[in-house]
Design goal:
With 455 residues, the chain is an alpha/beta fold. The chain has one domain: Aldolase class I (TIM Barrel). The protein is built from 14 helices and 14 strands. β10, α12 and β11 form a beta-alpha-beta unit. α3 packs across α5 and α12 runs parallel beside α13. The longest helix has 23 residues. It binds phosphoenolpyruvate and cobalt (II) ion (CO).
Length: 455
């Protein structure tokens, strides 16, 4: 390990490779101007936070921590509002408390926040009533309204996305050291604070029981002067987003004083999506040179050999805590596809963190054409993933959700049926678990974790 820059890599080396999901900007001069400005603005995260996260992920790899990653499919700048941010953090925090209680280990919270503004699309264009326009690629690129002007890729939105990420992160950091930091604070625990009419009594009681037990255990440990209390309860949130728009990512990737290598300072954990993970493509080229831990989404079509090559390319020095493999196979396929990959990675002697994303392999379209996901499929993929890893002697180190703290109606099951979907379907992209579904999901995972501990 010398310079920590892999051979042949430079900040621009991705530009010679095919860029999947590339965005065409008509005004090259405006794009250049924006990226120049972005480059001069302060970073959103720091290299020492990135280094810290790598250490924590290394512990999750060996089962000492559990990762909870979640947030919107697509963040929007119009939702850069206090209430949305608070509610998202709160559901992640509450889920993590349930998981800490069940798993008897610290939970590492990684939000899909402060930069999840760029979306890959299955089709570059969208047609409505005979009119064809570019698809909506997220608020970092264009706007959702179906007009030619709104759908034009606008470089100014790169800057706007950065600004909204900064606003979001500023509030997240403030909450993490203020209100949320003190787990004795009643609003962290108290469900009545939410006044959620839709929350079933059983769930409310279950949560109350869990939080009572947890607070009691905390008080007990504190009375004994346990140093682990601090560690267990520190409320930290790391950020993550799909590193899709390489204009944005590369403009904010820097060398930093007194460290070797380059850091992507837009987020702690960028991930490469299922549609952009080609070995010879620009995204893998770009991210193989950054020091951040890197997530890689793996769908059912990936081959074991491809996974091994991806891990080798993106972790040239075989470091711990560097690679997060986020498998999203679908409930129906996970039992068949996951073991081969896990075995190949093991046989190659590679060390990774395994996480399941039970959302993206379980998308279905209703008879009336609404994109949804079924709570039971989501849970099934998680449970099967636990089984596969247990059987193969590896560790399922975390879960990755599309969720929101709001009472939306986008996924079915956990209190909603197909007829409810049009009541409050807000997502501009994929369907998310709502507040109640997310909390219930945490309890179901908790049950599974307790079973594993007993075994
Ligand atoms: C996503 O996480 O929103 C996404 C597009 O996932 P994937 O790349 O796994 O399809
Ligand atoms: Co999505």
């Amino acid at each position: 390990m010398t310079t920590l820059v892999p051979p042949g890599w430079s900040i621009d080396s991705f530009r010679d490779k095919p860029i999947a999901q590339d965005v065409h900007y008509e005004d090259a001069a405006a794009l250049a101007e924006v990226t120049r400005e972005l480059r001069t603005l302060p970073p959103l995260v720091t290299s020492w936070e990135v280094e810290k996260l790598r250490e924590l992920l290394a512990e999750a790899e060996v089962g000492k921590r559990f990762v909870l990653q979640g947030g919107d499919c697509a963040e929007t700048t119009s939702e850069t509002r206090a209430s949305f941010i608070v509610n998202k953090l709160k559901i992640l925090l509450q889920m993590s408390l349930v998981l800490i209680h069940a798993g008897h280990k610290p939970v590492l919270r990684i939000a899909r926040m402060a930069g999840q503004y760029a979306k890959p699309r299955s089709s570059p264009t969208e047609t409505r009533d005979g009119v064809t326009l570019p698809s909506y690629f997220g608020d970092l690129v264009n706007r959702p309204e179906f007009t030619a002007e709104a759908r034009r890729a606008d470089p100014a939105l790169l800057l706007r996305g950065y600004q909204h990420a900064a606003l979001t992160l500023n509030f997240v950091r403030t909450l993490a050291v203020g209100g949320f930091a003190d787990l004795h604070h009643p609003e962290v625990w108290d469900l009545s604070f939410f006044e959620r009419a839709d929350l079933p009594t059983e769930l409310r009681e279950q949560y109350q029981r869990t939080t009572d037990q947890l607070s009691e255990a905390l008080r007990f440990m504190e009375a004994l002067g346990e140093s682990t209390v601090e560690q267990l309860t520190r409320v930290e949130f790391y950020t993550s987003h799909e590193g899709l728009n390489l204009h944005y990512e590369s403009a904010k990737t820097h060398e930093v004083p007194r460290r070797k290598g380059w850091y992507d300072l837009t987020t702690h954990l960028p991930w490469i999506g299922e549609r952009t993970r080609a070995l010879t493509g620009a995204h893998v080229e770009f991210f193989r040179g950054v020091r951040n831990p890197i997530g890689i989404k793996l769908g059912p079509k990936v081959t074991p050999d491809e996974v091994v090559q991806l891990v080798r390319a993106l972790n040239p020095w075989g470091e711990k805590g560097k690679i997060v493999l986020i498998t999203r196979m679908g409930a129906a396929r996970v039992a068949e596809t996951l073991p081969k990959i896990v075995e190949a990675v093991g046989a190659a002697g590679l060390r990774v963190l395994w996480i399941t994303d039970p959302m993206h392999g379980n998308t279905q379209t209703t008879a009336s054409g609404i994109k949804t996901r079924d709570f039971d499929d989501i849970l099934q993929e998680i449970e099967t993933s636990f089984e596969v890893h247990e059987r193969l002697g590896t560790v399922l180190g975390g879960v990755h959700f599309e969720l929101t703290g709001e009472d939306v109606t986008e996924c079915i099951g956990g209190g909603l049926n197909v007829a409810d979907l049009d009541k409050k379907y807000v997502s501009l992209c994929d369907p998310r678990l709502n507040y109640r579904q997310a909390l219930e999901m945490a309890f179901r995972i908790a049950r599974r974790m307790k079973d594993s501990r007993r075994k």
